[in-house]
């Protein structure tokens, strides 16, 4: 199998992560984005020099995400605040100068954005000498707006082909799925795993040879371990010839408000990554519940996560589990719809074969529901038309009230803040 994986250039994002993984090091990465080029450069340098194995992030602003580059330009001209780096409005000369002496073979940099129409972003990052980003036709569409899914598929087809063309410059472009996150919380792991694998296959179908498969930490450590094992197994089955690795996101839902609670949740995600054989972790900070974190808070999180990962040994869960069974059934059902994965994804959402709980996008069927059981595991309350009813079983289905939903949304926050607020240790939360 190893011989089938493409040889990667020394400066590639995927190659850097693979070499760190082979040394037993977890690569950690912030979610950092600052509008001012000098401040963005300082943030990247602080990340580079953190006491951890790191890669850099340029997170883009909300105007750039929706392709309103004129508004981003006006904000820059007026000195108004932006919540990220406007890579298109700045232009390639500014971005290249910002990265000069920062990005190198020992410190690759990835662009993160959240756009369903990212052609301008892909062009801007390529002209700036960058070659790594994240996204996906489903995961960068359904949670963020009302762009029709079919339009997002066309946009992402163009972007994958633009990225793949960079190989002609002697570099290996890298694309990460965001499908392992979707709404951030209350999406059962099997659907996250299926979407991550399907988006990885979509990338491969349009020319990418180096990908990462994402999974966002959810509500139960044991279920998360099963999910990562399932993701690794299904990626090996469906993407055998690609350079690939698994990237874990520290919890993306309502975050603990206390520093102790936030750090305990961060450490739990780092230990999940290290135990499960993931190669990279994208961290959150103690400020996550209240504001955009500072550079220093990001560096603190990188170092804490790296140290937490180093304290555990790899002990992968078995891939023969419920998450794998459900995810495999979802993937197979989509693949049976059409040989073109873009068309298959659109058909799958039209038919309700893929149906994201609590997602209000017009192209999502909106029939599925999830709930948290008494142990904190995410379960299906209703699978709608998804082809996993026989696997889930009628016994697990239940009616979800608005009170149940609100209580579930704050479950992680309460679980991790509770010990800090009552003066107890976080052992109970971490080992449950």
Automatic annotation (TrEMBL):
Signal peptide: none annotated. Its EC number is 5.4.99.1. InterPro entries: Cbl-dep_enz_cat, Glu_mut_E. The keyword Transcription does not apply. It is an enzyme of class 5 (isomerase). This is Methylaspartate mutase epsilon subunit. One of its GO terms (biological process) is anaerobic L-glutamate catabolic process.
